[in-house]
Amino acid sequence: MEKNVMEMSMLYDFYGELLTERQKSIMQYYYGDDYSLAEIAAETGTSRQAVYDTVRKAEKALRGYEEKLGLVSRFMRTGAELRKASLLIDEVMGGCSGANAEKLRSVQKIIDGLEEEL
Question: 0.85 cut: is pTM over it?
């Protein structure tokens, strides 16, 4: 079983609260703490196979939530678009002065605030 830590971390951040307590705990051990299946089994008093099944079921659930809701992909697109807008403002600022430059600085502050919220 190959870990896709970045993908699962994002999915877990967005949808983790929709998992059962057991799934959340095991996913935290597996992805957050980088425990092996055997280590998690020892920690939780279950079999390695039970841990494997729980991880697989939780991954499937998280991917299913993303497929239906698309929050992670929307988050990623929004961040990319904000970065593009910021670069365009920097580009235009080079040839601006006065009131227009001040307006662009104001727009840049708004973008910076939105990026911080992401």
Answer: no
Enter the tokens of residue 103. Answer: 């307006």
Residues 45 and 47: their CA atoms lie apart, in Å, by 7
Q: Can you tell me the distance from the alpha carbon of 64 to that of 44, in angstroms, rounded to the nearest whole number?
A: 26
Displacement of CA 94 from its chain's centroid (Å): 34
24, 68, 103 from 59: Cα distances, Å: 11, 14, 45
Cβ–Cβ < 8 Å for 66, 10 = no
Model confidence at 85: pLDDT above 70: yes
Number of C-alpha atoms within 13 angstroms, CB side, residue 7?
8
SS (H, E, C) the chain: CCCCHHHHHHHHHHHHHHCCHHHHHHHHHHHHCCCCHHHHHHHHCCCHHHHHHHHHHHHHHHHHHHHHHCHHHHHHHHHHHHHHHHHHHHHHHCCCCHHHHHHHHHHHHHHHHHHHHC
